[in-house]
Amino acid sequence: MTNSCQTGVQVFIPAALNRPTHTLYSICMLVQPTNQEWTVNRRYSQFLQLRKDIQHTLATPCASCANCASFSRAVSRFRFPSKSLLRTNSVVRHRVSSLQDFLKLLVGRVYNDAPKCSSCGHEIQKMMRPFLIRGAQPINGSILSKINKSLSLDSYAVVDQPVVPVPDPTTPPLLPIAGRELFSASKSSSKPIFTHSQSSRGKSIFSRSKVKLSTASDGASTQPNESEDPIMDYSDSDEDGDGRKYDDQRCYDEGVPLEDAMKQVVLPDGARATCEEVVVRLTTMWAAYHLEEALSSLPPERLSQQANFLSIDEKEYAF
């Protein structure tokens, strides 16, 4: 049985960053009822753990809930990307598409107004909420405090006129949802979409400081000082223990020449992007690069050029 209920929550994985020690997958979120957009970064191991946690919760479904059994079958039958000894760009590219489909499956099942029991409703939401929110980077004038509550709504039904949040005094006003670029084609296309919004509005939220090379393994990360990093500067009043698994997932390796860094941004099969779009994605995943500085370092004509190096497996990274 498929879930036919509409949801006002949309999710895409338009790119990944393939580094020697780990790979980050960029998740783009839109909660349409509150008009909030953001990105978060996650590792393959975190997707895998989320799947295991959900399967464990649904393993003993509520006897009176038909949705539990249906949800469990859908997750079990989904062709989740397998582990691999090598993280070549081709492997990562396949994972980008598969992990996006996996999140779309979960979002479609969880964030709607269909009746649910505690297991397939509240318990699964408690797992997914920190996965999709912790370390959020706002887009298009969205506000962290509102993002933080966007996946705790009473209803996720699609609305004809989205509620536009009242912006903070320092936050640029939001454009109508139809004119915003990140999800402008999301209702008519399943392909991931890039945004230019971060390069055309105000000051970037990303840190200008360069940081030392991280030698952490896939299960750990080097974190910045919270007082110096605006992405870390928000709190969550909910005591969800799963949150500590995620937090701010960006790459804190020392920067390399920009053109070399751009080559480590991996797009899904069939996707096309300009160099400007690749830079935008890069700066959401790698803290060493500031968006405005990166864009200004490239010739204007280069920004509009099609990125043609993304289909080449130049390196193979071992786990």
Automatic annotation (TrEMBL):
Looking at the record, the residues that make up the PX domain are 3-139
PROSITE patterns the UniProt entry points to: PX
Which InterPro entries does UniProt cross-reference here? PX_dom, PX_dom_sf
Task: Please list the residue ranges that the record marks as compositionally biased, kind Acidic residues.
Answer: 226-241
Q: Which GO terms describe its molecular function?
A: phosphatidylinositol binding
User: What are the Polar residues biased-composition ranges?
Assistant: 189-202, 212-225
Q: Which residues form a coiled coil?
A: none
TM ranges are: none
Please name one Pfam family that this protein belongs to.
Answer: PX
Q: What is this protein called?
A: PX domain-containing protein
Q: Which organism is it from?
A: Hyaloperonospora brassicae (Brassica downy mildew)
Its taxonomic path starts at: Eukaryota, Sar, Stramenopiles, Oomycota, Peronosporomycetes
